[in-house]
Amino acid sequence: MQPQERAIQYSRWKDDSQDEVNMVDMSDNEGASLCQRVYQKLCTGKLGIAVKVVGGVALFWVIFILGYVTGYYVHKCK
After folding, report:
1. What's the whole-number mean pLDDT along residues 17-37?
2. How far apart are CA 59 and CA 51, in angstroms?
3. Distance CA 38, CA 49 (A)
4. pLDDT at residue 71 in the model
5. Phi, psi for residue 19 in degrees, rounded to 5
6. CA-wise closest residue to 28 among 6, 2, 8
7. CA 19 – CA 10 distance, rounded (Å)
8. Helix (H, G, I), strand (E, B) or coil at 50
9. d(CA 71, CA 39)
10. Which is more confident, 44 or 55?
């Protein structure tokens, strides 16, 4: 069983007489936008670590290939 994630939202009105405190259940994704749900799924936890590692390796290879091709054309014998 996973612990429930909660957030506290605190807002104070202009006059100091009224304060409002709300407890929001973060595990309920009904109110979350699509971007927030995708972020929570792909960028947190073990899956988030795996996505970041795969993204880093892919970025490395893209930069390596671009550098190789650029170096080939820059240093090509005439």
Report:
1. 67
2. 12
3. 14
4. 93
5. -120, 150
6. 6
7. 8
8. helix
9. 37
10. 55
